[in-house]
Amino acid sequence: MRIKKEIFLEMIEHCKGCFPYEACGILGGKDSIATEIYKIKNIETSSVSYFMDPVEQLKAMKDMKNKGIEMIGIFHSHPYGFAYPSNKDIELSFYDVCHVIISLNPEQENLNFEARAFKIKDGKVYEEELVIE
């Protein structure tokens, strides 16, 4: 998965801004290159799970359709966990899109982070290369 640098930085800032709760959103683009970010409200207000606001999610889907792009990724943060899919992430995954998980480290100043990308199919997790352009 490739992400434009400005989109990646916006995603990281969104995740830091939602701390201590999980942030979530959608990455849109073409040919596995994320060129648009849709920051979606986590209606669970939780530090261990997320559920995207359905109204905001629908708006994002309509905007992508109008722009002629597609959903190529879903992102969310793990404020206190690892940058690896949880059991719930695996159960609820869409295998045809990339899942970008951002782990935040609250112990360090400025919330250092780790970002990794995965495809999940039939309960199995496959790490994808994450390239920032």
Features:
single chain; 133 residues; alpha/beta; Cytidine Deaminase, domain 2; eight-stranded mixed beta sheet; 3 helices; 38% strand
Furnish the topology, listing elements before pairings:
Elements: E1 2-3, H1 5-18, E2 24-30, E3 33-40, H2 54-67, E4 70-78, H3 87-91, E5 98-105, E6 112-121, E7 124-128, E8 131-132
Parallel strand pairs: 1-3, 1-8, 4-5
Antiparallel strand pairs: 2-3, 2-4, 5-6, 6-7
How is this structure best described in words?
- There is one protein chain.
- The chain has 133 residues and is an alpha/beta fold.
- It has helices spanning 5-18, 54-67, 87-91, and strands spanning 2-3, 24-30, 33-40, 70-78, 98-105, 112-121, 124-128, 131-132.
- The longest helix has 14 residues, at 5-18.
- The relative contact order is 0.22.
Question: Summarize this, please?
Answer:
This protein is of the alpha/beta class.
